[in-house]
Write a structure and sequence with these properties.
The chain has about 525 residues and is of the alpha+beta class. It has ten helices and 14 strands.
Length: about 525
C-alpha cells in the first residue's frame, strides 16, 4: 500500500491546523471582537488621559490664581486674611463661565462663589411636578447635596492641611466634575483654599462614546461580512450538495457532479469530491447489479431449459438405456443448477460480508497450512495432490484482512487448478515475497500441470459465468463464479490476482500459474 494514501480501514483524523474553513471561521469570528476590544482599550486610555490632562490644567490654573489671590486679595499685617471684594474681582476676570471657583477661609467656611458673582443668570420656568414626583425629586436632591457637601468639605480639609487635591466627583446636580483644591499661602501661613470645578467631564465622556461609534460600525460590518462570507462559502455549498444528493436519492440522476465545488481545496471541496466518488461508485454498483441480474437469469435458464427438454423427451422414450441417459442429464443439470444458485448466493453476499467483517492481522502461512492439510487427507483417487512450500518466516507472512474470504480465495484457486489436473497430478502452492516489486508484497502462486489457458483468455477467465473448458473435462462442474469472486475479494484487500501459462524450454505450455499478491503491511 502506498504511504501517500490513507489506509482504507481507517478514517482520516481531523486536524485543526489542516482545516482551512476552521481557520477562516475562527479568524472571522475573532475579527469583530478584536475590533471592539482594541477600540475599548484605546478609548478608555484616551478618556483617562483627557481627564488627567484636565486635572493638570485645572491644577496649574488654580495654582496661578491662588498666587494672584494671595498677593492682591489679602490684607492684614502681621495677621493676613482674605478680602472677599478683591477676590471677587480676580474670580470674575479669570474664571470662565463653564467653571466654578470658590474660596474658603482658613476655617473651611465659604466666602466667595463664582456662581454668585456671575453677571447673567439664565432663568427658565420649570414645568409643574406631581406631588409624589416633587417629593421624590426633593428627597433625591437633598441626598445629592448632602453627599456633595460632604465630599467638598473633605477636599477642603485636605487642602487646608497643605496638599494640592485633584479628584473626579459629582456636584449637587448629580453631574460629574473635575475638581482641584489648592491652599492659599502667604509666606508659611495658609489663608484659605481655592477650589475650581469643571463640569465638562460628562461632555468628554459623551464625546468618547460617540468616538466609539466608528469602531462599533466597523465591528458590525465585520460581523455582517463574516456572516455573509460564511453563508457563501459554507452554508450555500452545503445546500447545493444536499440538493444534489436528494436528486440522486430521488433517482433523477445516477451521479452527482459539481465542478465548481470540487475544485475547492478546503473541506467543502473534499466533501464534494467524496460525494461524487460515492455516487459514481453507487452508480457503478447499480450497473453491476443490473448486469449480474441479467447474467444470473441467463445462466439459470440454461439448466432449467435442459431439464425441461429432458423431461419432455423422457415421456416419449421407450428404451430403458435412453431413459437412463436422460435421467443422468437431468441429475447433472439439477446439480449444476444447485451449484450455480449456491455460488450466486455467495457472490451476492460477498459485499455485505466484506463490509461487516473488520480487517485484522491474518497469518497467511498458518491459513494455507490448514487448507492444504485438508487436501492432503483426502482419499486416494479423489484428484490431484496439493503441496505447500513456504519461503517466508511466520513473522513476515501476515496481512491485514479477513480470514474467511481469503481462505475462500485460496480454495477457489486450488480447486480450479485441481479441476484441470490429471487425477495423479500435483498442484504446487508456494508462499513467498515478490522481489520485482519495491513494496515486496506477499505472493502466493498456485501451479498445475494441466493444458494451460489460451492466451486470449488469460483475463477473460476472471469474468462472471465464464465456463469455457478444454475437451475432456466434465461440463457443468463449474459455475464460472469462483475466479470472479476471488478477484473481487483480493482487490477488496488491496491486492492483485492474475493468471499466466507455464512454458518449458521449447516454449510449449506445460500448465497454468495463478499468482495472488497481497500488501504485506507488517514487512
Amino acid at each position: 500500500m502506498s504511504p501517500d494514501k490513507p489506509s482504507p480501514y481507517r478514517l482520516p483524523r481531523f486536524r485543526w491546523g489542516q482545516s482551512r474553513l476552521g481557520r477562516l471561521i475562527l479568524l472571522l469570528n475573532l475579527a469583530g471582537l478584536l475590533v471592539l476590544v482594541i477600540g475599548a482599550l484605546v478609548l478608555n486610555e484616551f478618556r483617562q488621559g483627557l481627564i488627567d490632562n484636565r486635572k493638570e490644567s485645572l491644577m496649574a490654573q488654580a495654582e496661578t490664581m491662588g498666587e494672584i489671590i494671595a498677593v492682591v486679595a489679602t490684607a492684614g499685617d502681621p495677621a493676613p486674611y482674605l478680602e472677599p471684594q478683591n477676590a471677587v474681582l480676580v474670580l470674575g476676570r479669570f474664571i470662565p463661565g463653564e467653571q466654578r471657583a470658590r474660596l474658603f477661609d482658613a476655617a473651611g467656611h465659604p466666602i466667595v462663589d463664582s456662581y454668585a458673582v456671575s453677571e447673567t443668570v439664565d432663568v427658565r420656568p420649570l414645568p409643574p411636578l406631581a406631588e409624589e414626583h416633587a417629593s421624590e425629586t426633593a428627597s433625591n436632591k437633598g441626598a445629592r447635596e448632602k453627599d456633595y457637601e460632604t465630599a467638598l468639605a473633605a477636599e477642603v480639609q485636605q487642602a487646608l492641611a497643605g496638599e494640592n487635591v485633584a479628584s473626579v466627583r459629582y456636584n449637587e446636580k448629580g453631574q460629574k466634575v473635575v475638581s482641584v483644591s489648592v491652599p492659599l499661602r502667604r509666606v508659611k501661613a495658609i489663608l484659605g483654599v481655592l477650589t475650581i470645578e469643571a463640569g465638562d467631564v460628562d461632555t468628554i465622556v459623551a464625546a468618547q462614546r460617540w468616538a466609539m461609534l466608528p469602531f462599533i460600525l466597523v465591528a458590525l460590518g465585520t460581523s455582517i461580512f463574516s456572516s455573509l462570507l460564511l453563508y457563501w462559502l459554507v452554508s450555500r455549498p452545503i445546500h447545493r450538495l444536499s440538493a444534489a444528493a436528494d436528486s440522486v436519492r430521488l433517482q433523477k440522476s445516477r451521479a452527482m457532479s459539481l465542478p465548481d465545488l470540487e475544485a475547492r481545496k478546503d473541506e467543502i471541496g473534499i466533501l464534494a469530491r467524496s460525494l461524487e466518488s460515492m455516487t459514481d461508485a453507487l452508480s457503478r454498483r447499480m450497473d453491476e447489479i443490473d448486469r449480474f441480474a441479467a447474467d444470473v437469469s441467463h445462466e439459470i435458464k440454461n439448466p432449467l431449459t435442459s431439464i425441461r427438454s429432458a423431461l419432455e423427451t423422457l415421456s416419449l422414450v421407450k428404451d430403458e438405456s435412453a431413459k437412463a441417459r436422460l435421467m443422468a442429464v437431468i441429475n447433472q443439470d439439477v446439480r449444476r443448477a444447485d451449484r450455480l444458485i449456491t455460488d450466486i448466493s455467495n457472490a451476492s453476499r460477498l459485499d455485505a460480508e466484506l463490509s461487516r467483517d473488520v480487517p485484522k492481522p491474518v497469518d497467511v502461512g498458518a491459513l494455507l497450512d490448514d487448507i492444504v492439510s485438508l487436501y492432503q487427507h483426502m482419499p486416494e483417487g479423489s484428484g490431484a495432490t496439493v503441496s505447500l512450500t513456504r519461503t517466508v518466516t511466520p513473522a513476515s507472512s501476515r496481512v491485514q484482512g479477513r480470514e474467511g474470504p481469503l481462505g475462500q480465495v485460496f480454495r477457489n484457486v486450488i480447486d480450479n487448478a485441481r479441476s484441470f489436473s490429471q487425477p495423479d497430478g500435483e498442484v504446487r502452492v508456494v508462499l513467498g515475497h515478490s522481489d520485482d516489486d519495491a513494496a515486496r508484497p506477499l505472493c502466493l502462486t498456485v501451479e498445475d500441470d494441466g493444458p494451460g489457458i489460451p492466451a486470449e483468455n488469460l483475463e477473460t477467465i476472471f469474468q462472471r459465468f465464464y465456463t469455457s473448458r478444454p475437451k475432456g473435462t466434465d461440463f457443468g462442474r463449474n459455475s464460472g463464479l469462483g475466479l470472479s469472486i476471488s478477484r473481487q475479494i483480493v482487490e477488496a484487500h488491496g491486492g492483485r490476482i492474475w493468471a499466466e501459462n507455464r512454458l518449458d524450454e521449447d516454449g510449449k505450455i506445460v500448465g497454468a500459474r495463478f499468482t495472488i499478491a497481497l500488501p504485506n503491511v507488517y514487512h
